[in-house]
Specification:
Layout lengths: L21 E6 L10 E6 L7 E11 L1 H8 L4 H7 L12 E9 L11 E5 L7 E5 L3 E3 L6 H5 L2 H13 L7 E5 L4 H12 L3 E6 L4 H6 L4 E4 L12 E6 L6 H5 L2 E9 L11 H12 L6 E4 L6 H12 L7 E6 L3 H10 L5 E5 L1
Parallel strand pairs: 8-9, 8-11, 9-10, 11-12, 12-13, 14-15
Antiparallel strand pairs: 1-2, 3-4, 3-6, 3-15, 4-5, 5-7
Helix pairs in contact: 4-5
Bound molecules: NADP nicotinamide-adenine-dinucleotide phosphate (NAP).
NADP nicotinamide-adenine-dinucleotide phosphate binds next to helix 4, helix 5 and strand 9.
Length: 345
């Protein structure tokens, strides 16, 4: 990725005026695997009237970055990500950094504030974000830890809320060792639930270390065949059928479908299953729900409170320099990561 032909322009000092800054960024001009990612110098973006320009210190990767990189499932291309090639050239969505400039309408943040959230083109020295997707960085976390939070933790929080989690409930988290799952276990514990996590054998201790009361190895145990029933099931991993998942629920339990890889290249198996679940829900006693998550400032603030109270600690697997972003994405997709993959900028 350090191919000199992509590094022709000099980088100005990191904190110089953003209007004249040429920045390093990870871009992609065609859909493909991680080899399609290039480190180049391009002009830094400018903050629109309702936007903040962030000097990115750290960014994190999640499986959504892989989907945008590959353009799969193909439905995404029709939904506006770019039909033949990615519409947005710079990869990355989650970042933590320092406010470098604010748009004319922005009053919530000032230059120099330490912030985090979802933004456009996080794998770069500068990225823009809408104010509604940002919050102040928790003082007790590093930029690297903070960057791990936005999409994954907001998804976990929103999924648990959709499931109407409450204290004392028995909650099953399928995919507990993943980016979303490691937050979901901690947040469910903070709500006072009894949490059972499902993951691979090699990550059992990891899931236990973030507070799961019980952990099941999915290769060893067929979770739809266990006797125990759960008030709430969050599904983030594997591609079990709806009937297999419903078997894990109490008669009036709630299933929240977050995601899962595999399935068709055209639409993606998880989306079809989620839509079927929502259509079926009115006709059964169990509640079947799906999540379409979004990073929101008020949810980041709730997460900040949980972080400051010591209820959530982001788990970072590895950090990679920006120049090795392609390796970061390869590790993300390998399934070997034990926590979030972070890119330092
Ligand atoms: N609906 C939304 O708005 C939304 C938002 C964010 C993410 N998502 C989706 O949610 C899913 C999870 O995201 P993520 O970032 O947490 O992904 P991730 O970090 O790749 O985690 C995947 C999880 O699935 C587990 N898993 C794999 N195979 C499994 C199986 N057969 N049975 C049970 N668990 C299995 C993995 O366990 P091991 O690693 O231990 O094998 C891991 O815990 C993805 O499909 C993503 O696209 C949806």
């Amino acid at each position: 990725m350090d191919d000199p032909q992509h590094l022709s322009a000099p980088t100005t000092p990191a904190d110089s005026s953003p209007t004249t800054t040429v920045m390093r960024a990870i871009v992609q001009d065609a859909y493909g695997d991680a080899d399609a990612l290039q480190l180049v110098h391009i002009p830094a973006p400018e903050a629109g009237a309702d936007h903040v320009l962030i000097r990115v210190r750290a960014a994190s990767a999640h499986i959504g970055d892989w989907h945008v990189m590959t353009g799969q499932p193909y439905l995404m291309r029709v939904m506006g990500f770019g039909f033949r090639s990615p519409k947005a050239r710079v990869r990355g969505m989650d970042a933590a950094g320092t406010v470098a400039a604010v748009g004319a309408n922005v009053t919530a943040f000032r230059v120099g504030d330490e912030v985090y959230g979802s933004c456009d083109g996080a794998f770069a020295e500068y990225a823009t974000a809408r104010v509604e997707t940002l919050a102040r960085k928790p003082a007790i976390l590093t930029f690297e830890q903070t960057a791990a939070v936005p999409t994954s933790a907001c998804t976990a929080l929103q999924a648990l809320r959709i499931g109407e989690i409450s204290a004392g409930q028995r909650v099953l988290i399928i995919g507990a060792s993943g980016g979303v799952g490691l937050f979901a276990v901690q947040i469910a514990q903070a709500f006072g639930a009894e949490v059972t996590g499902v993951c691979s054998r090699s990550k059992i201790e990891l899931v236990r270390s973030v507070g799961a009361d019980h952990v099941i190895d999915y290769a060893e145990t067929d979770i739809s065949a266990i006797e125990q029933r759960f008030d709430l099931v969050l599904d983030m991993g594997g591609n079990r059928t709806l009937s297999q998942l419903r078997r894990c629920l109490t008669p009036r339990g709630t299933l929240v479908l977050v995601g899962g890889e595999g399935g068709g290249r055209l639409v993606g198996g998880a989306l079809l299953r989620s839509l079927r679940a929502v259509a079926l829900s009115p006709f059964v006693r169990q509640r079947l729900r799906m999540v379409v998550s979004a990073t929101k400032a008020e949810d980041l603030q709730t997460l900040n409170d949980l972080i400051e109270d010591g209820k959530i600690t982001p788990v970072v697997d590895r950090t990679y320099p920006l120049s090795e972003a392609a390796d970061a994405i390869r590790r993300l997709h390998s399934g070997e990561a034990r926590g979030k993959i972070v890119i330092t900028v």
